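Each lists sequence, tokenised fold; shown next:
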Amino acid sequence: MPSSDPKRRETATLPDRDDLMVELAGRLEVLDGLLNRLEDAERQAADASEHILRTRRWQEDTVRTIQEERARMRQRQRALDELADHARAALTALAHQRSLPPEVHELAVELQVLDAAGFLTRRGRGR
């Protein structure tokens, strides 16, 4: 039977103190779990950020290396083309001789092979 005493009704509607402590402890555990997950996510984000920075540095180094190698290759190509031009000029000058050493004929053949293979960017004049 309901009591007519107002104090007794107030305490009857309030949850038991032990129930509140259990609920509070449960909520604290949930918050602790969320905090742990947040800390893990922060560590993962920091690791990912560091990985991105290392990857970016590696990409920049790779691009720089490729650019340097391209410059060296262009330099070598120019040197090869100049050598081929000098060899052609020498062959042209020697063409008027009656007998030529075998090395001259070999040089002419090697120039033709290099040119046909696409190793020379300047094309031979008057083949």
User: Anything to note?
Assistant: The CA atoms of residues 21 and 27 lie 10 Å apart. The mean pLDDT is 86.
